[in-house]
Design brief:
Elements lengths: L11 E3 L36 H8 L2 H4 L9 H24 L6 H20 L6 H5 L3 H12 L3 H10 L12 E7 L7 E8 L4 E7 L5 E2 L7 H17 L4 H19 L10 H14 L3 H25 L3 H8 L8 H16 L5 H9 L12
Antiparallel strand pairs: 1-2, 2-3, 3-4, 4-5
Helix pairs in contact: 3-4, 4-6, 8-9, 9-11, 10-11, 11-13, 13-14
């Protein structure tokens, strides 16, 4: 059945005389620009009674993801969206199985989580297979996404921009949907973000009373667009002499984005030790603060993948390292790798999964010192 086309809200921008509107997207969570800060921890131990009520309070997407703050770990936000969707869907299915009346608010939450899981994957350029991540075929998963967008016209338009582009001038880089403004920039210039007819991420600078000027560069993910925007904003507002830091961050993010693309495949990919060693090497060469932030989280994720694979094979971390790569690895790596894996649990996964994942780590032996590789 063809996708139903209905009038889009006025939130599209034409580069030749037009206007800018407000997309009404989720309000970004403001964080301190001085450095990375994670979402404030709430009681995350799901109660045994009234789990539906708990999730209606604690699992809303606006409390799980901050699209406009690049200092929030990508892995953590993706894991929370995916895990909460699976959990809330299971609650909805249990109601149906018991012939109970479907909890309308819980069903709406399930649909909202489905939409935002898809949006987040597009936002950060993450390969997404509904079946691999949620256990659902693509058509079944999209049913929930469309149920959400049928209720929210702004999200319906955003979904269209990211996919079919019935509302957009397809392949027109001058037709741009405004998605929001940068919550962290200061001064008299506002950074505006958007997505164009090529599904590329764009930014513009706007001063009070002046025309909105879109930058010509198209980016494949939001973070790349954000880093370029903040570099230009820095020059405009302060004639920043530390522009080299931004240049380094942009180059290092290009490397990080390749890992993000494979996020949901990390646990199943071959050669986890080699990929961990590669990421560790990339981290050692990072010079920007933001690049180190991204690669610390990536290395921790790779470390967890090594431990997870060791658990599946029933071997120690030392044995994984001994036979997993041709590189020379220090004997101290086994202990530090497990520490990094715990770091991934803390900053890169849904708090509801922490106890389960910590138990998995505890079952894996670090092993003896790596003396004599064979």
């Amino acid at each position: 059945m063809p996708y139903p086309v209905r009038p889009a809200p006025i939130i599209l921008w034409r580069m030749d005389p037009g206007h800018v509107g407000n997309s009404g997207m989720i309000s970004p969570l403001t964080t301190d620009p001085s450095g990375p800060r994670y979402f404030k921890d709430r009681p995350m131990r799901e109660p045994r009674t009234a789990p539906a009520a708990w999730h209606l309070q604690h699992s809303r997407p606006e409390s799980l993801v901050s699209y406009f703050d690049p200092w929030q770990p990508v892995a953590r936000q993706l894991d929370m969206l995916a895990n909460r969707f699976r959990t809330v869907k299971a609650l909805c299915d249990a109601q149906v199985d018991s012939l109970a009346t479907e909890h309308a608010a819980l069903a709406d939450l399930r649909d909202s989580l489905a939409f935002h899981l898809l949006r987040a994957c597009v936002w950060w350029q993450v390969d997404f297979s509904p079946h691999a991540v949620t256990g659902l075929q693509a058509t079944s998963f999209m049913k929930y996404v469309r149920r959400h967008t049928d209720r929210f016209v702004d999200d319906d338009t955003l979904l269209d921009v990211m996919t079919w582009q019935h509302y957009m001038h397809r392949a027109d880089s001058g037709h741009i949907m405004v998605t929001g403004t940068d919550p962290l920039c200061r001064g008299n210039t506002t950074i505006v973000y958007g997505i164009d007819g090529h599904r590329g991420f764009r930014f513009a600078m706007q001063r009070a009373g002046q025309k909105l000027e879109w930058n010509d560069i198209t980016h494949t993910d939001f973070v790349a667009s954000c880093l370029n925007a903040r570099a230009l904003h820095c020059l405009i507002e302060t004639e920043c002499t530390a522009i080299g830091e931004w240049d380094l961050a942009r180059e290092e993010h290009i490397q990080a984005s390749r890992h993000y693309t494979q996020h949901f495949r990390t646990a199943t990919q071959a050669n986890p030790v080699e990929r961990y060693a590669t990421a560790l090497d990339q981290l050692s060469r990072c010079q920007s603060r933001f690049g180190r932030f991204e690669f610390e989280n990536i290395v921790n994720h790779m470390a967890f993948s090594v431990v997870q694979t060791a658990h599946e094979r029933g071997i120690s971390i030392a044995d994984m390292l001994r036979h997993g790569t041709d590189r020379t690895i220090s004997p101290r790596i086994a202990g530090s790798l497990k520490k990094r894996a715990r770091g991934h649990i803390t900053t890169g996964t849904d708090p509801l999964r922490h106890a389960e994942l910590e138990a998995l780590l505890d079952q894996v032996e670090t092993g003896f010192a790596l003396s004599g590789r064979s």
